[in-house]
Amino acid sequence: MNRLGLLVLLTVARLAHGIWNNCGWTCGLRPMVSDSTPDDYGLTRIVGGRDAKPGAWPWMVSIQHPWIPGSNKHWCGGSLISSDWVLTAAHCFDLIKKIGILNVVIGATQLTQPGPGAQVRKIKKLLPHENYNESDITNDIALLELNKPVKCNPYIQLACVADPTVRVSELQNCWIAGWGTTTEGAQNSSDRLQEAKVRLIDLQLCNSSRWYAGKIHPHNLCAGYRRGKIDTCQGDSGGPLMCQDMNADSWWVVGITSWGRGCARERLPGVYTSTQYFYDWILAQMGLSPFENAS
User: Fold this and answer.
1) CA dihedral 121, 122, 123, 124 (to 10 degrees)
2) Radius of gyration over alpha carbons of the chain, in Å?
3) Which of the following is catalytic: 91, 129, 217, 219?
4) Using an 8 Å Cβ cutoff, are 259 and 271 in contact?
């Protein structure tokens, strides 16, 4: 099966630590931040949230549009999953006619002052899911091939994509991050990366009559809190929902920020595209075959 190649690749990647001058054999690590940080750090929200530390989420990507008003030009988020591939949401490109005008910024925390560790790339190829449906936001996943590979450094690391062996529903330490708006209806995105801890919400509960009432699909994840108040918002689309491995310091990208009704409302948590559900699709789009990549 196609999943075997990436599964072996990611398994090796989790064991091998720290070749920063390329992105070959490490993923899900945060060399600039200790993962012994207490669980309540950042327990606020992207809506009105707390600044992330520099390098806190080194696979975070800002997709930027030059025509957006304001200084940072941020449009959508994404996750760097190889030196030249970014995982994001298909709906980010509903209104984009020419992807060549977009910039992809990797390794920044503050967008107006990205720092010496940041790198900028153009998009060589956009691959939205062939069954993405704009009307009901199904199959909301896309891959971007960059025009030139990035070089990993302490501020730029690869994300680990949740593979079929990961027991996602059992993961406890889960976080969201992004440069989106910090209040519902706000016009300007955040200049500094925001972060917040969230909880995975049972899909059946999330789809129940007093919550999303049947609008959640099997390929979705819900994350946030019953009471609301902590959530992703406009501009966070495409960014990662991340959970720490139960037996290691490494992190999995388990979801892609997709949609939600408003921001941080009670019983209306953020809705994410499950990366595990689309694992085979991701593998195929990147052109990974089982054995040559494992080697």
Assistant:
1) -100
2) 17
3) 91
4) yes
Q: How far apart are CA 172 and CA 282, in angstroms?
A: 25
Catalytic residue among 74, 82, 140, 236: 140
Catalytic site residue from 62, 189, 190, 237? 237
Kind and range of the H or E element at 257?
strand 251-259
Query: Looking at the DSSP assignment, which residues form a beta bridge with residue 62?
Result: 77, 105
* Cβ neighbour number for residue 123 with a 10 Å cutoff: 19
- Give per-residue pLDDT as tens, 162-207: 999 999 999 999 999 999 988 887 778 899 999 999 999 999 999 9
180 in helix, strand or coil?
coil
H runs (alpha helix) in the chain: 3-15, 203-206, 279-285, 290-294
Rounded CA-CA distance 191/74 in Å is 8
Contact residues for 155 (Cβ-Cβ < 8 A; gap 6+) = 32, 54, 55, 58, 107, 108, 109, 115, 117, 118
Q: Active site includes 91?
A: yes
pTM for this one?
Answer: 0.88
Known catalytic residue: 237?
Answer: yes
Please tell me the distance from the alpha carbon of residue 172 to that of residue 269, in angstroms, as a whole number: 17
CB 156 within 8 A of CB 57: no
Quick: pLDDT tens for 46-90. Answer: 664 689 999 999 999 999 999 988 778 999 999 999 999 999 999
Res 244 pLDDT > 50 = yes
> Which residues, at least 6 apart from 109, have a Cβ–Cβ distance to it below 8 Å?
51, 52, 53, 54, 55, 56, 115, 155, 192, 193
